[in-house]
From TrEMBL:
Domain Major facilitator superfamily (MFS) profile: 19-404
Principal cellular location given in the protein's record: membrane
Listed InterPro entries: MFS, MFS_dom, MFS_trans_sf
Membrane listed as a keyword: yes
The protein's name in its UniProt record: Drug resistance transporter, Bcr/CflA subfamily
Gene Ontology cellular component terms for the protein in this record: plasma membrane
Length: 414
């Protein structure tokens, strides 16, 4: 595929460190866009005069549009560059956040949340590709393994901030905060950042489709994306149901709901750090062991909550399950994103896009099966996702065994 240089502002060498920090600062934006108003969901339903499911749909619409955005935005970024698209997306994201904060029409909010998803997709994929553009070898591997750890700052910090915003200023303040955050980062990008892509590929649909097909047909890559989807869906299940369980079932405040989400965000971070620490361990063995521990935790959670209906018990077992989810995500995200360095934008977009499409439809479907009633229903949700992960892992193990046999046969032939 033909390449060309981009006649745009490039990153100055003295600003590379600041540009890297700004890129990391935007990695958690998808988490902020979902998690900051999670403690406000029950109050939003009352304020807007709609039922719980309609408010939960604002999360699903974001996830769907965020996923779809990533599916196609990678090829656009590889052809037209990262910098300008990211900058425009930050300004549009800020404007749509202000619209949400100033309206009480649920359908306008739906439209703005779709715009949120599209723009955040462009922002996050551009920053993932930034690292592949700039860094190579072990340093790149190091930064990629940090992604899920940095990303987990969103689920940790956002619900904590959102719970207090809700308590003091109402749900609208969450979206004013998102607007301010985006505008500040955009201003810093203008002064300190620039284009990271050195050579752009020609935007030819047929050639781009071939790249997509080649990636999807790589079985290990596709199975990895499924594992990513199931892992993040465990987190999203709590995000969509936890506030209703805490505030309606246990009759506690939005601040408490924010603290529980913060605590489970820490679990995701612990899983990410553990994944980074064991990055050189045999891949299949550690993933199988992780799923076994998750399965035991989910079964124990179900039976204990049937006997003791307690928030502390629920959060304890959810914490263990979320550690496992963070561990899975860290390992598979590093693997999938580093598999196709020549097409970093497309690989990052495809990985994130399919993952979030899986999460959006699967999470909403599971909520339909197991509504946000209590911890027992949440246990069933976790258990279903872990069983699906085990089924996918079965094929991963078979594929790994087949690759080893083929490698051994080649050695014997030589």
């Amino acid at each position: 595929m033909a390449t060309k240089t981009l006649p745009v502002k490039t990153i100055k060498q003295q600003n590379l460190g600041i540009s890297t920090i700004l890129a990391f600062a935007l990695i958690p934006l998808s988490g902020f866009a979902t998690d900051i108003y999670i403690p406000s969901l029950p109050n939003m339903a009352v304020s807007l005069g709609v039922d719980d499911v309609k408010v939960q749909l604002t999360l699903s619409l974001f996830l769907i549009s965020y996923g779809i955005s990533q599916l196609f935005i990678g090829s656009v970024l590889d052809s037209f560059g990262r910098y300008r698209i990211c900058l425009v997306s930050l300004f549009v994201f800020a404007l749509s956040s202000i619209v949400i904060a100033t309206t009480h029409n649920i359908y306008v909010i739906y439209a703005m949340r779709i715009i949120h998803g599209l723009t955040v997709g462009a922002i996050v994929v551009s920053k993932r590709a930034f690292f592949v553009d700039i860094y190579k070898g072990e340093k790149l591997k190091h930064y990629l393994s940090l992604f899920t750890i940095i990303w987990s700052a969103g689920p940790i910090i956002a619900p904590f901030i959102g719970g207090h915003f809700q308590d003091h200023f109402g749900w609208e303040s969450n979206f004013y905060f998102l607007a301010a955050f985006a505008l500040i980062i955009a201003a810093l990008e203008i002064f300190f950042s620039g284009e990271s892509l050195q050579y752009a590929i020609d935007f030819r649909i047929r050639s781009i489709v071939k790249i997509y097909v080649s990636m999807i047909r790589t079985a290990s890559f596709s199975l990895g994306i499924l594992m990513l989807g199931f892992a993040y869906c465990m987190v999203m299940m709590y995000n969509m149901t936890g506030p209703f369980i805490v505030e309606h079932h246990f009759n506690l405040s939005p601040v408490v709901a924010g603290y529980t989400s913060l605590f489970l965000g820490l679990a995701w971070m612990v899983g990410g750090f553990t994944g980074k620490a064991t990055i050189n361990k045999p891949f299949v063995g550690k993933m199988v062991m992780n799923l076994r521990l998750q399965l035991l935790a989910a079964i124990a959670m179900l039976f204990v909550l049937m006997a003791v209906d307690n928030l502390y018990v629920l959060i304890f077992f959810a914490f263990l399950i979320h550690i496992g989810a963070g561990y899975t995500y860290n390992n598979y995200f590093t693997y999938c994103l580093g598999k196709f360095p020549a097409n970093a934008g497309i690989a990052g977009g495809l990985t994130g896009g399919v993952t979030y499409v899986i999460v959006s439809f699967l999470s909403y479907g599971i909520i339909y099966l197991f509504p946000a009633k209590d911890g027992v229903n949440l246990s069933y949700s976790y258990l279903l996702l872990i069983i699906l992960s085990i089924l996918v892992m079965y094929f991963v193990v078979r594929l790994n065994r087949k690759d080893k046999e083929q490698s051994f046969s080649k050695q014997q032939t030589v």
